[in-house]
TrEMBL record:
Molecular function GO labels: glycosyltransferase activity
Keywords: Glycosyltransferase, Transferase
Transmembrane segments annotated in the record for this chain: none
A Pfam family hit: Pribosyltran
Protein name: Pyrimidine operon attenuation protein/uracil phosphoribosyltransferase
InterPro entries xrefs: PRTase-like, PRTase_dom, PyrR_bifunctional
Ranges where the Phosphoribosyltransferase domain occurs: 23-152
Length: 192
């Protein structure tokens, strides 16, 4: 009988609650310097949870916005539409306002690019800052967060998925990424 091989990430799994406390402290310090309260917008799913909790803990009275980037993703043509599309809700004029875009994990930067495209469909903000719970590295686009709970390179073979319990406390689930083997053909290797 052959037993399955179980593996674990080579990286330390971050404590999502600790990261949240760090991020909240950074944003509290920032809010103390703001002339006008920024508008918080969260990217569905984990970023919306993060924005919702920050919005409450910072005592913000401005409406909270949420966006679903499904139709703005650059891989939409290859992946198709997700069966889990959420509602985009931006019920405030963004023109000339400061926005804090919230996402749970910053990796390639592609989700942030898609979110920025969608935000600009609702108006032209004066400034958009990015707040993330965890920056795991692996950037493919020139995107950087201004407010970060924590950051370190994380094992690329694993995803980090934000979860929350009934009391709204955060933790990470760490599933292994699906491996898709691609056959790569190089022009020098093609036989004619």
């Amino acid at each position: 009988m052959t037993l399955p091989v179980f593996t674990t990430p080579t990286s330390v799994i971050p404590d999502a609650e600790h990261l949240y406390i760090q991020l909240l402290a950074h944003l509290r310090a920032h809010m103390a310097t703001c002339v006008q309260t920024p508008i918080f917008i969260g990217i569905h799913r984990g970023g919306a949870w993060l924005a919702e909790r920050l919005h409450a803990d910072l005592g913000i009275s401005e409406p909270l916005g949420t966006i679903d980037i499904s139709f703005y993703r650059d891989d939409f043509a290859t992946k198709g539409i997700s069966t889990n599309v959420k509602t985009t809700d931006v019920a405030i004029d963004l023109n000339g306002r400061d926005v804090i875009l919230c996402d749970d994990i910053l990796n390639s930067g592609r989700s942030v690019r898609a979110a920025l495209n969608e935000i600009f469909d609702f108006g032209r903000p004066a400034q958009v800052d990015l707040a993330v719970l965890f920056d795991r590295g692996g950037r493919e686009l020139p995107v950087a967060a201004q407010f970060v709970g924590g950051q370190t390179e994380f094992d690329a073979a694993y995803k980090l998925v934000l979860e929350r319990d009934a009391s709204n406390r955060f933790c990470f689930r760490v599933p292994r990424r699906e491996v898709v083997e691609e056959v790569e053909t190089h022009p020098a290797e093609v036989n004619v």
